[in-house]
């Protein structure tokens, strides 16, 4: 069968989308006058940031030795936050192009995705990209690939995604090296009188207001049933109908049916996105066996999202509901804060995912948001704690566990010292060090809570931008942590409550109250800003009041006249302090939460 299914996998910014452009251009999939840079990056935010956020499939037609081949390409994201999308893309193909930037060599996600592809027994084609750049180190990168993955030098292809150099040879290698798809127990060419039984793996989905959820699938066996036939989702037990099938060229292109080995889409007519999950199996019968590898996407980082204007709550709720249809990894539940009012506690795969979702909500749905500081999920006697306000106050909390991750950092040897110092400061436990030419891979175990507090920025800072990282969740471990509350004028501001590792709690409290002192406006009375653990105050700052000159109207006379007025003012201020309420402006919240 003349079908080849493959992905492009690489670290972020190694040129996956640019290489995809050249493959589409050379095979004539997209006319030259319609070509634009990073064509498969369809989101406005992807173009603005220059990164791939969503995987993108496309079908290419390629002729080799007068024989026509169908090449199904899946372009994947490179950032660690979207690793689950990459794993699903790899489950849908027989081979992968392992792309390495000639100027920066192997980095964390190169290794992570490469090993993941090898575990799934995929055929890897090693490719060195950006060979046209003056600072490209082709011999050094070749040696890295050989030492790390065991490739021979003859296997490694050299290309330039920008100029198109070497892409013809890459297309030949795809046809020659990547095997045709094998059907699981059923002939790829349907036998006579085929009844339409099939199984398909969902590797992505999106929402269409007319067709419902559209599942992007790889047909594993059989061929799709006729239009309007009933289909079953084996993990969620949902039912739908085939409204239409087709493939990506790269726009949706209608066809009659999809057969085993093909990659395309099935419009399901289902209006609830939760029922169509990435990694699930679609079948024409309920008693079919689900395909292996399915796991639910579990959020790692939680952020409270609140409307800046309380009247926009329902607009925000509607925006989140619509956005959830386009991003299955995003989750949200209602939450109420005394300081910020009604909002939502949202779950994300990582900090970049959280940042991207907030920007998309603001840009695509025109919603003004206020986001609380990111937190992670804790377990208190095996019960999930996703909001700091759910944790009891005070010290000596028994049975509290925090998530730990396995962390791999790729860094040039020059920066080993500063990077190790940073990770140790973040409670990291050193496991292993491996050398790859001039680069080193450091392996650590570290609490996830330490990673969501400016770890990535500091890692880039201490390594002059050269370090890259990959991480995955290991387990939950006992931790001595407390809830630090912030009190302004004696009232607790629940939106600023944070769960902190106990030895670091006092330092955290001091930084918070010092920052609040800078941003809170002065009042006509003294404002006490305090950080507390239970009933114990661990840090305090005081904002002095405005002083009105009540004696300005006096002219001459006895000193006692001034003293009487000052005493009266003092009593008034004391009373105002008792009944005065400090209003915290949104600007103050924004500056605190951004810091």
From TrEMBL:
Entry's Gene Ontology cellular component terms: plasma membrane
Cellular localisation: Cell membrane
Family: Belongs to the TRAFAC class translation factor GTPase superfamily. Classic translation factor GTPase family. LepA subfamily. Belongs to the GTP-binding elongation factor family. LepA subfamily.
A single GO BP: positive regulation of translation
Tagged with keyword Cell membrane: yes
SUPFAM superfamilies assigned: EF-G C-terminal domain-like, P-loop containing nucleoside triphosphate hydrolases, Translation proteins
EC number: 3.6.5.n1
Topological category with respect to the lipid bilayer: Peripheral membrane protein
Single GO molecular function: GTPase activity
Enzyme class: hydrolase
Pfam (any one): LepA_C
Gene3D superfamilies cross-referenced by the UniProt entry: 3.30.70.240, Elongation factor 4, C-terminal domain (3.30.70.2570), Elongation Factor G (Translational Gtpase), domain 3 (3.30.70.870), P-loop containing nucleotide triphosphate hydrolases (3.40.50.300), Translation factors (2.40.30.10)
UniProtKB keywords: Cell membrane, Elongation factor, GTP-binding, Hydrolase, Membrane, Nucleotide-binding, Protein biosynthesis
Name listed for the protein in its UniProt record: Elongation factor 4
Leader sequence segment: none
The Tr-type G domain, residue ranges: 1-182
Entries under InterPro entries matching the protein: EF-4 (IPR006297), EFG_III/V (IPR035647), EFG_V-like (IPR000640), G_TR_CS (IPR031157), LepA_C_sf (IPR038363), LepA_CTD (IPR013842), LepA_IV (IPR035654), P-loop_NTPase (IPR027417)
Catalysis performed (reactions): GTP + H2O = GDP + phosphate + H(+)
Gene: lepA
Positions of GTP binding: 13-18, 129-132
Biological role: Required for accurate and efficient protein synthesis under certain stress conditions. May act as a fidelity factor of the translation reaction, by catalyzing a one-codon backward translocation of tRNAs on improperly translocated ribosomes. Back-translocation proceeds from a post-translocation (POST) complex to a pre-translocation (PRE) complex, thus giving elongation factor G a second chance to translocate the tRNAs correctly. Binds to ribosomes in a GTP-dependent manner.
């Amino acid at each position: 069968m003349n079908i080849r299914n493959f992905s492009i996998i690489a670290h972020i910014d190694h040129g996956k989308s640019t290489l995809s452009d050249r493959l589409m251009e050379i095979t004539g999939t997209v006319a030259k006058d319609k070509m634009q840079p990073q064509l498969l990056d369809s989101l406005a935010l992807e173009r603005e940031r220059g990164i791939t956020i969503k995987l993108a499939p496309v079908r290419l037609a390629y002729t080799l030795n007068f024989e026509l081949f169908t090449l199904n390409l899946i372009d994947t994201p490179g950032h660690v936050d979207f690793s689950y999308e990459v794993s699903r893309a790899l489950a849908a193909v027989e081979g992968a192009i392992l792309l390495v930037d000639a100027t920066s060599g192997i980095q964390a996600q190169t290794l992570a995705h490469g090993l993941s592809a090898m575990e799934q027994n995929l055929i890897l084609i090693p490719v060195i990209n950006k060979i046209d750049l003056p600072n490209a180190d082709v011999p050094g990168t070749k040696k890295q690939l050989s030492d790390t993955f065991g490739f021979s030098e003859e296997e490694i292809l050299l290309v330039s995604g920008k100029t198109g150099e070497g892409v013809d040879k890459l297309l030949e290698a795809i046809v020659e090296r990547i095997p045709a798809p094998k059907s699981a127990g059923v002939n790829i060419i349907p036998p006579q009188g085929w009844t339409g039984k099939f199984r398909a793996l969902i590797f992505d989905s999106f929402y269409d207001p007319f067709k419902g959820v559209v599942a992007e699938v790889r047909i594993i066996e059989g061929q799709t049933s006729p239009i309007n036939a009933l289909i079953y989702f084996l993990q969620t037990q949902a039912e739908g109908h085939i409204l239409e099938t087709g493939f990506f060229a790269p726009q949706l292109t209608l066809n009659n049916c999809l057969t085993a080995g093909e990659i395309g889409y099935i419009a399901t007519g289902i209006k609830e996105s939760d029922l169509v999950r990435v990694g699930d199996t679609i079948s024409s019968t309920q008693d079919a066996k689900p395909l292996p590898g399915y796991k639910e996407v579990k959020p790692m980082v939680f952020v409270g999202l609140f409307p800046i204007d309380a009247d926009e709550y329902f607009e925000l709720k509607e925006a989140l509901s619509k956005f959830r249809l386009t991003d299955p990894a995003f989750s949200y539940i209602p939450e109420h804060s005394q300081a910020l009012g009604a909002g939502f506690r949202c779950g994300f795969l990582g900090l970049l995912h959280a940042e991207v979702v907030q920007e998309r909500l603001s840009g695509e749905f025109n919603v003004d948001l206020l986001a609380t500081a990111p937190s992670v999920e804790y377990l208190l006697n095996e019960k999930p704690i996703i909001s700091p306000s759910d944790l009891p106050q005070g010290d000596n909390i028994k049975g509290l566990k925090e998530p730990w991750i396995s962390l791999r950092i790729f860094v040039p040897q020059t920066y080993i010292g500063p990077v190790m110092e940073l990770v140790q400061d973040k409670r990291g436990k050193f496991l292993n060090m491996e050398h790859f030419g001039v680069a080193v891979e450091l392996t650590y175990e570290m609490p996830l809570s330490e990673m969501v507090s400016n770890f990535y920025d500091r890692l880039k800072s201490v390594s002059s931008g050269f370090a890259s990282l990959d991480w995955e969740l290991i387990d939950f471990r006992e931790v001595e942590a407390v809830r630090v509350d912030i009190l302004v004028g004696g009232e607790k501001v629940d939106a600023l409550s944070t769960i902190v590792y106990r030895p670091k709690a006092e330092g955290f409290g001091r930084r918070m109250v010092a920052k609040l002192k800078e941003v809170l406006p002065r009042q006509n009375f003294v404002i006490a800003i305090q950080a507390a653990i239970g009933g114990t105050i661990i840090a305090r700052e005081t904002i002095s009041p405005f002083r009105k000159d009540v004696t300005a109207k006096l002219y001459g006379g006895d000193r006692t006249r001034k003293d009487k007025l000052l005493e009266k003012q003092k009593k008034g201020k004391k009373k105002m302090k008792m009944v005065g309420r400090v209003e915290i402006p949104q600007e103050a919240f924004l500056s605190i939460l951004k810091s």
